[in-house]
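name: query_chain
kind: protein
chains: 1
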Amino acid sequence: MLLNRQRRRAVIAGAVTLATAALGIGLSTQFAGAQATTLRAAADAIGKDIGVAVDVNKLQNNAEYRNTVATEFNSLTAENAMKWDATEPQDGNYTFSQADTIVNFAEDNGQSVHGHTFVWHAQTPSWVQGLDATAMRTAMVDHINTVANRYEGRVDSWDVVNEVVSDNNGAMRDSFWLRTMGEGFITTAFQTARAADPNADLYINDYSIEGDNAKSDTIYRIAQGLKSQNILDGVGFQSHLILGQVPSTMEANLQRFVDLGLKVRITELDIRLNTPADANELAQQAEDYRRVTEICAELADCSGITVWGLRDNDSWVPGTFPGTGAALLFFEDYSKKPAYTAVLNALGGGGTGNPTTTPATSDPATTSPPPTGSGCTATLSVSSPWNTGATYSATVKANQNLNGWKVTWTWPGSERISNAWSVTGTLTGATVNGANESYNGTLAAGQSTTFGFNITKADGSTASVPTVTCTPA
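structure:
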């Protein structure tokens, strides 16, 4: 299947334009000249998926939407068009026009497809929910076989079951699936999907499992059982996050699933905040996106990231959580948010995108030079500046095995830290004396960890990048 993705992308890199014959689209832009100044080019360069959930109606009717989807992303997920109510609204009455539109678009533009989803307690027609155990199993098996067979070789991976664990201390969700068929419905779904398309990667997908908690523990237990039967390939972490609340245990939690021999994938990423958003919130959002992206980029077995929608006004968030939103990478007018630039940089790309906050008057992206000859080195860089402040990213690298680290520097001007993450200590005032948190202090020689912070700068001048001294704790 990896070969399929590479082959499709190689076709695009060689000559294919954004034209989508199935939709009659004739655009002139070519990927052949693309550099790593798009999300797509940066992700391709490191062998990761950068995906987006797409609305089939906008894909059909909005040229700028299509162009952005094709240019910026190498993977697509149908937001709704592959769910049960869209593909089999009545028993045995299948309709694939919307799903076909998305798959055809992906193929025409050299993109992979992550299928979503076979079995879910929501958006499943009422005729399924009222069946007895035998009839429900038959309906499930028929549905998975029919949909998977249609897209065999064209859809690279599937969310086979979705949201099967409740938010109540890791208990199984009290769904009609569980009440009628028992927990065995999960195994049946995966066995059926594996037989229907042996080459597709099969995922279990859920939300609020990014950190190490009771819910992720239950997913871990389920994953162990499915992996032992060779019917599970990966775990999908939806990652519908709240501003400033990326779990501190996210990297370690994903790693434990990788240690089972599974892939991990960020399947539905968005980061919501209270609206309207101000510059500080957009900067924090950018840092949150950067952190999640770096976790995936640095994990060899993280297959990729899918952002759950293109523009802020395409998002499901405001309709579900009133008063919040602005959760995605693009503003309504398709301009790029600071979060876009953060993701691009975390994927190894370059450029500043098109930030709407006012940039500093000179180039703020200078990185502080690390001192040499110490047990660790640390660097600072400005990732998102605005008129009266900035977001900084910091990296600590161990030159020897460390059980803790300390950093210090002195601000040359009016810069002062307003909030920080993944670092503790005396962070106020002109002189900063920081130290590791409990979860990021132990580093083997050659390993790195990151922290970050926002500053305010009263005089409005360009944010400086001081030299940082790092010492073992």
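note: The radius of gyration is 23 Å.
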